[in-house]
Specification:
Rossmann fold; alpha/beta; binds nicotinamide-adenine-dinucleotide; 345 residues; seven-stranded parallel beta sheet
Length: 345
């Protein structure tokens, strides 16, 4: 029998980051029950949770977060004491084609969860129900909410929000609603704004897996614009450790930026992927994968540079990235190669 303190709702657990977070959290404390709420869009896969050590501690709820009635039923049925919200439409390119879907999931769906947490845990503004005083809601957001940077600055938690794509605008909207529930009602919330993640199990539409699968198929590697857009890359397991720290120890109402200070241009990143492939999986025709790089029309609203100052994570919560980007990228490329080649057998 689980107690109220032990039931954590994680949304988006069949996706890339959510599956790593559930893997990390589900077996640490005996008695912890994790609910995974994920409606399995094209981006989610049941197989992402296939290797759990203690699968009976995770209950999978195939529910759409934009369905307010279904979300309310789950809060009535389970003694949820914490929410870590990751479920989202997450691909910028898709947001340019169907922004309405992003509003539905990332704004309306996020509000449904937040409102259920508020009404389940509190009698009214600043009045927690007995036993719910420590319940906590964490919104997993992105550094893209801050918009684009020049060559030398860094985003801090006080940088103004200036989203440029429908994806980042919907994430920013949800963050602001989370903020308002803390300010107006005293809900115990936290927000994380993280840089780009890499690692196993990312959907193949995203830059790193996309480039690896194209390269292995001998197809052109399409780079948007001049490829000089700068991104900071953090291994997914470092991100998940940070999310859990914010959930367990973060101050109420506070935002935490998460980053690796490991910036590279998109072009340099793809060149590094090609070099790893040249070493680990040489092209049968004897050419370097770099020869497949081609430049294509830039996407609209493409931010030039993101870079995040993660000092608050380091000083307040003692977090720092543990995975060296060089090694992490090499292992990640090898993981995708193995996946792609085994799917061809
Ligand atoms: N990937 C990154 O680099 C990155 C960086 C910073 C922040 N984030 C944020 O982290 C979160 C997770 O990102 P990801 O890369 O793992 O995404 P993902 O696209 O891999 O996974 C999203 C998951 O959410 C589920 N989902 C989508 N719509 C849903 C709905 N309406 N109801 C229920 N489930 C739904 C999908 O089925 C999928 O399993 C997102 O909120 C994203 O904004 C991602």
């Amino acid at each position: 029998m689980t107690t109220k303190q032990d039931c954590i709702l994680i949304t988006g657990g069949y996706g890339f980051i959510g599956s790593h977070l559930i893997e990390q959290m589900h077996h640490q404390e005996p008695g912890t029950m994790i609910l995974n709420m994920d409606c399995l869009t094209y981006a989610g896969k049941r197989a992402n949770l296939a290797a759990l050590q203690v699968p009976e501690r995770v209950i999978n709820l195939e529910i759409d977060i934009s369905d307010a009635i279904a979300v309310a039923k789950i809060f009535k049925r389970y003694p949820i004491s914490g929410v870590i919200h990751l479920a989202a439409e997450s691909h910028v390119d898709n947001s340019l084609h169907d922004p309405g879907l992003f509003v539905r999931t990332n704004v309306i769906g996020s509000h449904n969860l937040l409102h259920q947490a508020y009404t389940s845990w509190m009698n009214g503004p600043h009045d927690a129900k007995p036993g719910c005083e420590k319940n906590r809601y964490v919104q997993v957001s992105t550094d893209e909410v801050y918009g684009s940077l020049g060559p030398t600055e860094f985003f801090t938690e006080t940088s103004p929000y200036a989203p440029n794509s429908p994806y980042s605008a919907t994430k920013a909207s949800a963050d602001l609603i989370v903020r308002s529930y803390h300010q107006s009602y005293g809900l115990n919330t936290g927000i994380t704004c993280c840089v780009n993640n890499y690692g196993p199990r990312q959907h193949h539409e995203k830059l790193i897996p996309h480039m690896i699968s194209k390269a292995l198929a001998g197809q052109p590697l399409p780079i948007y614009g001049d490829g000089q857009q700068v991104r900071d890359w953090l291994h997914v397991s470092d991100h998940c450790r940070a999310i859990e720290l914010v959930y367990r120890q973060g101050a109420p109402g506070r935002t935490y930026n998460i980053g690796a200070r490991s910036e590279s241009t998109n072009l340099d990143l793809v060149i590094r992927i090609c070099e790893i492939l040249d070493q680990k999986k040489p092209d049968p025709r004897g050419r370097s994968y770099k020869e497949l790089i081609t430049f294509v029309k830039d996407r609209p609203g493409h931010d030039r540079r993101y870079a995040t100052n993660a000092d608050r994570m380091r000083t307040e919560l003692g977090w720092q990235p543990l995975i060296d980007q060089h090694k992490g990228l090499e292992q990640t490329v090898q993981w995708y190669c193995a996946q792609i080649l085994s799917s061809q057998l």
